[in-house]
Amino acid sequence: MNPRPFSQVDVFTATPLFGNPVAVVHQAEGITTDQMHTFTSWTNLSEATYLLPTTTDAADYRVRIFCPGRELPFAGHPTLGTCHAWLETGGEPRSDVIVQECGAGLVRIRRAGDVLAFAAPPLQRSGPLDEADVERIARGLGLTRADIVDHQWCDNGPGWQAVLLESADQVLALDPDPALLTGLDVGVVGPHSSGDVDYEVRAFFPGNSGLTEDPVTGSLNAALAQWLIGSGRAPETYIAAQGTALGRAGRVHVMREGEDIWVGGRCVTVISGEVDL
């Protein structure tokens, strides 16, 4: 066994236990892919990440990102949580913009006060969903087809299929059917009419025991922003809430600057120590 530094970071919140946690294993050289899969499942979290030496001089650090059962080329809350842990344990970026190397390539991250934000990576697939999928998603969410205002592929690694509803209240009232949504990564968004947030987001994906709801999802929010801002449905700066239905209070800050859409939030370390792997 080899003790390695370990962090568990709550992401998209400044208040511990109200965001989305990620496990971060530092100095992960020598850990096999099978061990990464095994440890990720053991944490019982949605994702775990493993910090490794870079393979390019263009990056500040390299990370492998896992969820139970599969490795992800990119994921949003693990990106911010890993960057937070790397900085907190002495990581020194070479410029004002931190560069993460991951399966999706190089991802830029910047700091503005206590908010970390990543530049949304290019979509791997976009455009409208097949009508048969839209009807299946509507049934699986307990909706009629007419309740879905618009729909879009939001695939930036995780293959999110996203639907827009008329209101945040509809999003919060969803009671999904795991059998009907088996095998799908479904994102749902609806606008708030008032308050301190502009949109409500929920994310459903296959888990070890059926359908899982993610507390706060960076990859989905990034792709939603590319879709909604790009189509003129959303303003160039907004805040999305996620996790409300699970008793969390995630806040995702979205901002378009030039060609970039930045997706960010606050992070807080809840657990730090060592892990034997």
Write down the secondary-structure element order.
EEHEEEHEEEHEEHEEEHEEE
Taken as a percent bin, the fraction of beta residues is 35-45%
Identify low-pLDDT runs. Answer: none
Level of helix content? 10-25%
Our count of domains comes out at 2
The CATH homology group name of the largest domain: Diaminopimelate Epimerase, Chain A, domain 1
Average pLDDT taken over every residue: 95
Under the CATH scheme, which class of the largest domain?
A: Alpha Beta
Helix/strand structural class = alpha+beta
In whole angstroms, how far apart are the ends? 5 Å
Features:
277 residues; alpha+beta; Diaminopimelate Epimerase, Chain A, domain 1; 8-stranded mixed β-barrel; 5 helices; globular
Report on this model:
The protein has five helices and 16 strands. The chain has two domains: 3-116 and 264-276, Diaminopimelate Epimerase, Chain A, domain 1 (Roll); 131-260, Diaminopimelate Epimerase, Chain A, domain 1. 19% of the residues lie in helices and 42% in strands. It is α+β, with helices and mostly antiparallel strands and 277 residues long.
Compact summary:
The chain has helices at residues 33-43, 76-88, 131-140, 168-172, 218-230, and strands at residues 3-11, 20-25, 48-52, 61-67, 70-72, 97-102, 105-112, 115-119, 148-155, 159-165, 186-191, 199-207, 210-214, 237-242, 250-257, 260-276. By secondary structure, it is an alpha+beta fold.
